[in-house]
């Protein structure tokens, strides 16, 4: 099956150049970036940090002069292009990279036409834009984590008749997610909608249900890499992995702890 074709449209005034690499890697999870365009007034020095990134990632800069002080012509240019791309019928979804609420109506209009809309922005992004997207990702969680320095093993004195061995390190317990009432409420509602007769629910169904209610939900917002990690790190729930028919692949299920 072919990957969804996506149009990536970036508001240069409301996006960070230093995060473009992890952002495009995130976009690749959802489909192929068939179009990559960035909008701004490239005669202004504040966009200088973007120029090298454009060449490295084949992003097409779209020049838009600010004709009137106080008016954002860049937004209008991006919106017009998005509608032109929509009418070509060549795209399955759109990635809007901005924290500007002015794109709320655009996101809504694209979804009304049956297109999937992915939003990428900062924590300051207004709720209206987040809710207008199918999925919204906070760009700060895309920043790569610094590599941890290895800790040298400590040795202990051997008992009589025993060889010296490195000191056994206690198994690191999973870092518990913050006891967030909103998180628990989301899990409980998703379980109620997806649970089977034995009280278990497929984790994929849980994630889909929550994302429909909260487009900005992401396990990485809670310091975990995956939803399964978040469930395992949250008190009050059990996680079970079941092997597939091939005996290798597994599916995750969760339920309330008993």
Termini distance? 41 Å
Radius of gyration: 23 Å
What multimeric state do the chains show?
Answer: single chain
Number of strands: 9
Number of helices: 8
Round the mean pLDDT to the nearest integer and report it.
84
- Low-pLDDT runs of 5+ residues are 158-176
Structural class of the helices, strands and pairings?
alpha/beta
Q: How large is the share of residues in beta strands?
A: 15-25%
List the strand order in the largest sheet: 3-2-1-4-5-6
Based on Cα principal axes, name the global outline.
Answer: elongated
Helical residue percent? 25-40%
Largest sheet: 6 strands, parallel
Q: In sequence order, what are the helices and strands, one letter per element?
A: EHEHEHEHEHEHEHHEE
Structure overview:
The protein has 258 residues and is of the alpha/beta class. The protein is built from eight helices and nine strands. The protein is elongated. The two termini are 41 Å apart. The relative contact order is 0.10. Residues 158-176 have low confidence and may be disordered.
């Amino acid at each position: 099956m072919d990957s969804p074709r996506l149009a990536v449209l970036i508001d240069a005034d409301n996006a960070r150049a230093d995060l473009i690499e992890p952002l495009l890697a995130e976009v690749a999870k959802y489909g192929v970036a068939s179009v990559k365009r960035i909008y701004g007034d490239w005669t202004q020095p504040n966009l200088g940090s973007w120029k090298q990134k454009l060449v490295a990632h084949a992003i097409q800069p779209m020049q838009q002069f600010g004709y009137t002080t106080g008016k954002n012509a860049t937004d209008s240019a991006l919106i017009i292009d998005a509608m032109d791309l929509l009418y070509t019928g060549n795209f399955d979804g759109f990635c809007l990279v901005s924290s500007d609420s002015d794109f709320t109506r655009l996101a809504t209009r694209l979804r009304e036409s049956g297109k999937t809309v992915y939003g990428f922005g900062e924590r300051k992004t207004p709720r209206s834009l987040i809710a207008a997207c199918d999925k919204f990702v906070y760009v700060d969680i895309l920043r790569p984590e610094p590599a941890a320095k290895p800790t040298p093993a400590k040795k202990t004195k051997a008992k009589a008749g025993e060889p010296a061995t490195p000191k056994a390190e206690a198994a690191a317990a999973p870092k518990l997610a913050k006891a967030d009432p909103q998180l628990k409420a989301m899990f409980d509602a998703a379980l109620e909608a997806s649970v089977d007769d034995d009280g278990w629910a497929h984790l994929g169904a849980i994630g889909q249900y929550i994302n429909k209610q909260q487009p900005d939900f992401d396990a990485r917002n809670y310091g975990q890499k995956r939803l399964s990690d978040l469930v395992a790190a949250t008190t009050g729930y059990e996680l079970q992995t079941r092997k597939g028919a091939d005996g290798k692949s597994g599916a995750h299920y969760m339920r309330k702890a008993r």
